[in-house]
């Protein structure tokens, strides 16, 4: 019996999965779906070359448009979701509706739990949904669990994910081969560990982890440089505002003197002062004189961030708050 398969997302893992379908899955057809037509066509061409027959075809489609995908996936035996994990719950519901088996490369615990809530619907539809089958989390967890079963008293398990370059470049020291949210997602929310035989929830990233990641220490010259700039910034800002007040007050004094000279009867109370001019000087002075201090407060953090990075910004804010 031959089967029709589909891959939603023709990335590296998607292409590898398409090859497995074509080679070992008794496949009649393998459909590669991607938002980029050229990527999908290139992947299909590669699969056909490896298999030696025209078994793979390419279709351009948006993974978030389930209406468009419904017509494409109708009639497939199984499909794999190789797209960004927020799309997986909708694709899971679509698989149940179409009666197609599905697995995905996961990437987010909350999303996977949302999918697991559909277990009853999947069973009623007679389909199998296997979420979170990617590299990590996914197969690395399965391999780690298997390794623990081979050891009598396992104490700790270290899992090294893929994407580690031979020549790491800061700040991530990571080779980005998929959606950036798939990487930053690892630092968001809480994580769950087995500690002393109990399921333990811990924060995904702590303040200490954050400080270590950006090397926020007093021996880091970027931090020291930021601290010096932050300490000076408070006093420079105060000096600019005080000089601005002085200039505005000087202009007000000159206006009062002018009115006494030019408006007859002002000294003996028979004349009427020009209050609008005084208000205008005060308002204009408040607006014009605060341009430089405001630009200073806005521009310096940006410049420090670009030059000294996150460590410099933290040093600047800490010393600025301490001295200001």
Derived from helix and strand composition plus strand pairing, the structural class reads: alpha/beta
Please provide the count of β strands: 8
Distance between termini? 76 Å
**Share of helical residues:** 40-55%
Total of helices: 12
Oligomer: single chain
Radius of gyration, rounded?
Answer: 32 Å
Strand order of the largest sheet: 3-2-1-4-5-6
Instruction: Please state roughly what percent of the residues sit in beta strands, choosing from under 5%, 5-15%, 15-25%, 25-35%, 35-45% or over 45%.
Output: 5-15%
H and E string: EHEHEHEHEHHEHHEEHHHH
How would you characterize the largest beta sheet? 6 strands, parallel
Ranges where pLDDT stays below 50 over 5 or more residues in a row are: none
What's the rounded overall pLDDT mean? 86
Structure, described:
The structure is a single chain. With 324 residues, the chain is an alpha/beta fold. Helices cover 54% and strands 13% of the residues. It is built from twelve helices and eight strands. It has helices at 12-24, 37-51, 66-73, 88-98, 109-116, 119-125, 139-149, 180-184, 207-213, 221-262, 275-289, 291-323, and strands spanning 3-8, 27-34, 56-60, 78-81, 101-104, 129-130, 190-195, 198-203. The strands form two sheets. A six-stranded parallel β-sheet has the order 3-2-1-4-5-6, sandwiched between helices. A two-stranded antiparallel ribbon has the order 7-8. Helix 2 (37-51) links the parallel strand 2 (27-34) and strand 3 (56-60). Helix 1 (12-24) packs parallel to helix 2 and helix 10 runs antiparallel to helix 11. The longest helix has 42 residues, at 221-262. The radius of gyration is 32 Å and the shape is elongated. The relative contact order is 0.07. The mean pLDDT is 86.
